[in-house]
Amino acid sequence: LETAVDQSNECIIITDAKGQIEYVNKAFEWITGYQRDELVGSNPRILKSGLTQQSVYHELWDTLNQGKTWRGELLNQRKDGRVYTVYSIITPVYNEQGECTHYIAVEDDITERKADEQRLHYMAYYETLTGLPNRLHMTQIIDQALASLEEGELGNLLLVDIDRLQQINDARGHEFGNRLVQAFAERMKQWTEQQGVQLAHLGADLFAVLFPPQVSKREVAKEKLYETCEALLTVIRKPIPLDGDVLTMSATIGAVVYPQKGGNAEQLLRRAETALHKAKRYGGNHFAVYRQQYGEEIKRQFDVERMLRHALKNDELDLYLQSQVDATGKVVSAEGLVRWHHPEQGLISPGVFIPIAERSDLILSIDRWVLQRAAQILASKEIAENPIDALSVNISARHFVRGDLVHVVSKLLENYHFKPQQLMIEVTEGVLIEDTDKVIEVMRELSKLGIRFSIDDFGTGYSSLAYIQKLPVSELKIDQSFVRSIGEKTTHDALVETILSIGEHLDLRMIAEGVETEREARFLTERCPT
């Protein structure tokens, strides 16, 4: 038995009733660094590191004095000064007279296990890139703040999103982007420490700042929040030196005053995210404070997107044709306008569902549906009997950059056998700033198939004449905002005349939208008889 105890992997120590060490096994020598003859006769306090709380020792002796076994963790110190953690089981030993004669302790060195637990805890609750609390940890901190709220107290939660980080990653690489995030985090740390508020890194380019609650009226709290957001944006805009370069950064902030109705941490974060998305619509270096209507707007958008997916499956869309006439009033072409007939809500304006579709891949599905419906119309008996020069349809910029437009149109030509030159695809000038080379490539491929192109709302966007010369464009459409009031010797007259002159010199077909009066028609026909 003595040999088994001496060779056990667990540390075993036996003391007398006064706590003097009488025996230690080899494992105890190996773990502590002390030899047996150094320990026998001394007190276990020789191992005391000073890091174990006094309350632990009080509990230990209270348990032992009651004749019970104590179990717990102790932070001890090896002979070389290194601290280690043991899980200790200490049992008092009594003689036949009921007197405590010895204490036996069996200890397990759990230092590595504790280190692993700490690493796992760190990984679970902190962002490794910045060392800041992560989303899970911040959620718990917010819940604690909400739980401790007193009557009349209000606090603020800010979400701070670095502007254009993806572009920086693309241009300079992810390692540079990571160092930039770390530099940004350091600046945020300095600011939040001065403010006495909690900072967290929710991942990638997103940070959170939690202001503790204070007694305040909601309107006063909101006014102060506006000032805080402005001040923080100013701090963020200060140049950051990095890798021998000096960068000027900006961020977008979404903020919310708490508590909110039915608001736990996740709901509060979602509302701050809603405000952040609202602010992002204005570009970088902006902030928005959450309002209830923002949440209602998001919900409406979600509902519309869900219904629109259903509409595409259940053939609720229709393509209306708007006639285009020449100077004599003869119908020569048409424009296809997509409309949505909801079975319960009736006609839903494209101004409602198209922007929502643009923010998702739904716009690609709508484009495909529009192109298929246009192909069916061009292949129909009615068009064969009453031919038109062109049927124009508007296609999203996304379809030129990330879609399969050439393949879709090729299949439609193969399936419906319509004249390709009768399909006029309208593009806005904004298409040209998405990915100019890709757009030109797609347009030229479609042009080889015989498809023609029109630039919609010409003059309202960003295109240059140099780009127009490169594109296989057949038509320019003058936006109706220019057409209104022409003939009244306003600046619109000069603008329209300039656009007509461009079209004439480039030998392009010209379309003027929204002509409603004889004066407007006369002005146009006098300057462009065809």
TrEMBL record:
Domain PAS: start-end pairs: 1-43
Ranges of residues in domain EAL: 301-530
CDD domains per the UniProt record, alphabetical: EAL (cd01948), GGDEF (cd01949), PAS (cd00130)
Name under which the protein is recorded: Sensor domain-containing diguanylate cyclase
Domain named GGDEF: residues: 153-292
UniProt-listed InterPro entries: Biofilm_reg_signaling, EAL_dom, EAL_sf, GGDEF_dom, Nucleotide_cyclase, PAC, PAS, PAS-assoc_C
Gene3D superfamilies found in the cross-reference section: 3.30.70.270, EAL domain, PAS domain
Residues annotated as domain PAC: 68-122
